[in-house]
Amino acid sequence: MVVDWQTLAKEKRDSVNALIPKAWLLPSPVPPASEQRDVTGKYIQQFLSPAEIEITETDAVGIVKNTTSAKWKARDVAEAFCHRAALAHQMVNCLHEIFFDAAIADAQRLDEYYAKHGKPTGPLHGLPVSLKDQFHVKDVETTMGYVGWIGTFEGKKGLGKEKVFESEMVTELRNLGAILYCKTSVPHTLMAGETVNNIIGYTWNPKNRNLACGGSSGGEGALIGLKGSPVGFGTDIGGSIRIPAAFNGLFGIRPSSGRLPYEGMANSMDGQNSTLSVVGPLATSVGALKLVIKALLTQEPWLHDPLVAEIPWRDEQEQAVLDIVNASGGGQLAFGVSKSDGIVNCQPPVRRAIDIVVKTAEKLGHKVFEWNPPSHKRCLEIAFKTWFYDGGADVHAAFALSGEPMASQIKSSYGTLKDQFTASEIAANNVAKRAYQKEYMEYWNSTSKITGTGRPIDAVIAPLAPFAAARPDMYSYYGLSTWVNMVDYSAAVLPVTLVDKTIDVVDEGYQPLNEQDEKVHLAYDPELYDGAHVALQIVGRRFQEEKVLAITEILGDAWSRALRELGSSTPKHPLKHHANFL
Amino acid sequence: MVVDWQTLAKEKRDSVNALIPKAWLLPSPVPPASEQRDVTGKYIQQFLSPAEIEITETDAVGIVKNTTSAKWKARDVAEAFCHRAALAHQMVNCLHEIFFDAAIADAQRLDEYYAKHGKPTGPLHGLPVSLKDQFHVKDVETTMGYVGWIGTFEGKKGLGKEKVFESEMVTELRNLGAILYCKTSVPHTLMAGETVNNIIGYTWNPKNRNLACGGSSGGEGALIGLKGSPVGFGTDIGGSIRIPAAFNGLFGIRPSSGRLPYEGMANSMDGQNSTLSVVGPLATSVGALKLVIKALLTQEPWLHDPLVAEIPWRDEQEQAVLDIVNASGGGQLAFGVSKSDGIVNCQPPVRRAIDIVVKTAEKLGHKVFEWNPPSHKRCLEIAFKTWFYDGGADVHAAFALSGEPMASQIKSSYGTLKDQFTASEIAANNVAKRAYQKEYMEYWNSTSKITGTGRPIDAVIAPLAPFAAARPDMYSYYGLSTWVNMVDYSAAVLPVTLVDKTIDVVDEGYQPLNEQDEKVHLAYDPELYDGAHVALQIVGRRFQEEKVLAITEILGDAWSRALRELGSSTPKHPLKHHANFL
């Protein structure tokens, strides 16, 4: 008997929701966004104990400080995050898989290990880590939002790998002492900056439920945004780590491909190897990102993932940044700033965020230069081709498994099956890509002539989306994130401010550059956007993860300090308080 | 007026030969191989002065020691190598391009720099470096053996790059003080282990002119084998550095892709990026290989080539090998040994070379284990597909430019234009490749259980071809070199011995494994092969170039010492002298 996709989806959804302990169910449904726009902070806190709030609002660095010194029990930490994640899911639909029981049992074992040996199992001892639903975890399914993948291994039956196989990074996280407890929602196909599929429906932005949580690592963004996880891993082929990090006010990093192990993860269009999807963390602090990357690199992933390059964590590269800054009384890094790519201009909140970060950098004594790289139009033409080599064959096959429909966000790009690229066409695009990358890096090199620091630009301050967050089904332009994937640079997300409808007013009389730009311009509505997170990306060169994180931390800390000095009691909610900084 | 390809080829050939100074022309043609099998050593020396012999028979390390201390003038060194290269070309057809005048002028400028500043320009000050004819060098053509590329830039006219554009590594070599003076022959398409094209004809093996010099970096192999160059660069997508190194008794290394800059080089099937061709050096000593790689990495090629990973030269990885050996009285590395891949067995001289190296390792106190990796048959099926993604379109287009015919060595594989792979088929092969690589690396990891050293195998001792050298048009099996490209490992060539017809007799009653194996078996003729070089490869993991070179040097030095102790007065010509070592 063939079961219709609606039934399969509902059964799956119900079976996951059934794993939430009764005591953690919300007493009543969350009010609509019109009544309760923001479910973070005080709203979610009302369902938690003070101890749970303390634990879940501590960043990953603080957590491992407590768990590796036995000040906190791993089990208490695991339970607190499982509880908060359960609440988060009920508020915004951010989970695909729940395995709280396994997590609590794992945490219990860690506590027993500590009691017996008097030391932690590893540097991430007892740290809850959430995973995008591309990771395979023992005893748990991976659907990646496809109804047709339910009960299979990546859509295939009878491989014997279902619920047994684990992705390489999962093994490494376990080795390091991390606690795995949930997998987070994605848009089916992974090819969207929003998160929607026929199993969980739509994942909303917890800070402003009128808006998208981002995608494709959208469940990660929403969950960590609600502090239902201190740190989690997403993937990024066109912005999928940075977009949800930004939309949820988080730090995140898209490492260069080959820095962290992607081995054994599910994917769309697996084997397309012109633009590789990369895996990287999202978290509430830069420290958390460093903590998990550094820990993973101690596992020598290059011995377990054929695509990882042998590049250990390099403290000296971080130190080199600090040495420059310390030797210059806090400044003298050189930044490029990119306000627009010439195709689309950013909405007012994003433009203000750029001003804030540029002014912050300048006040510290850094130099900021206009960034005029090789044509982004050309860059994006090459990049977007790589996503359509197979004409949509892989995506269509996945939908055909169950007969489920495509979300409109996917339909707009993959709705019609097209001709496949030939080997010659793919090769030509690879050559064009390499040529563009070469031009871009030589442009970057050339800036050593203008910085006056003896070095080229240290990093580029740039938007990663033209809006604070996308409105549902209105993510019309990916160019601001995707150029980074094309050149394979390291890029971290720096949360900057919140949309303030009183400051971020509509540009009256704006003359759009083109149709795409007009769409972005018209999508801005101060009333609707009010309170949403606004973030930027700090872009470094290939494999400069250490440097990019160091710079992101420097800029973030400086801006937080500035807010405090300006009298903002809540630097994370700096509404209106920084107007006089600009 | 359309000029026929024969005329174009002859004009090109004549124009290059015309660049040989009259004084350096051979007084009479070289006798046939039946009379003068070996043109190395005493044969070529007869045309050189004692000073020229001294210079050209010094390895690259010795040369830079003299040139960077002004003991030798760069100009004298350049002239000596230009002279010897001119002789080599007349003997075996190993050059595509000659630019002795530019080289001597460059050397003169280096001498003037030294005279003025009292120091060398860089670590390669005055070192002649030969280049495979894929490198673009200012004022010089790149034909890659295609008649249709004559007078063009990679087959295209009017780009304005002809004779102007330089490959990235060329720039870096110049920065380091190297002297560029010739480009060496290749088989058209580069897809052969022999060197033949319609411009220069066939490049013969100088040590045994019955045999092929190897390919595709065959001109490099022949030229350096005749000591017409101390070190040169070739490329390797299936064995093309290692094969000519081995066939000419040289050291050479195929680095992992992304270690050295390939940027801006001509290629066949450019943009095929499942198996990347890599660039690496061939030379007369391991020290020379280290010298040039280390020097190039000081140029930070990752800032100039988008595909190079940021991995500087790591002295500590070399030192780690030496520390193990020193702590163990000379031994305690662990080797895998692969005598056959189960598809083809090696001819007697290669089997003897394996025995020599294994015994050498064991005598030093190292451990040697049988190597049983995942199926090489499966590996090669994946690897060979990557060479035929475009069905031969690129190759056919190159031949069509002039109407020239394919050499039989190429025709056998690319003769018929086939269907192109689709994007989905390429993606599936990429997935299969990654899965194989993962299995292979986990097999390697698993050997830590058997070595007793606490580490997995340090390197694998393996043949890189089933024969000492190929007989013309009889290179029937590439599997022994190509598996390394599939897993992207670092592999150095260790020259071991010479074919000795009195020891290396035919296997009577040999039962071939299959048709391929039978071809290899039947191709062995002790009389014809007598005196040919025999070499093996030492294979390390991805990006372990430092370790592989350290190990290759240790084994090579030990075997040379053993030969000396056995009373061989000429360790480079150990005929018969080592029989009692085995």
Notes on the structure:
Two copies of one chain form a homodimer. Chain A has 582 residues and is α/β, with parallel strands linked by helices. Chain A has one domain (5-27, 38-581): Amidase signature (AS) domain (Amidase signature (AS) enzymes, Alpha-Beta Complex). Chain A is built from 21 helices and 13 strands. In chain A, α7 (168-175) links the parallel β2 and β3. In chain A, α3 packs across α5. Mean pLDDT of chain A is 96; it is low at 569-577. Chains A, B: Residues 76-549 form the Amidase domain.
Keywords:
EC 3.5.1.4 (chains A, B); 13 strands; 582 residues; Amidase signature (AS) enzymes; eleven-stranded mixed β-sheet; transferase activity (chains A, B); alpha/beta; homodimer; AS_sf (chains A, B); two-stranded antiparallel ribbon; Amidase_dom (chains A, B); hydrolase (chains A, B)
CATH architecture of chain A: Alpha-Beta Complex
Query: Structural class given helices, strands, pairing of chain A?
Result: alpha/beta
Range of strand content of chain A: 5-15%
CATH class of chain A: Alpha Beta
- Whole-number average pLDDT of chain A? 96
What is the CATH topology classification name of chain A?
A: Amidase signature (AS) enzymes
CATH homology-level superfamily of chain A: Amidase signature (AS) domain
Give Rg of chain A in angstroms.
22 Å
Family (chains A, B): Belongs to the amidase family.
Keywords (chains A, B): Hydrolase, Transferase
GO molecular function (chains A, B): amidase activity; transferase activity
Protein name (chains A, B): amidase
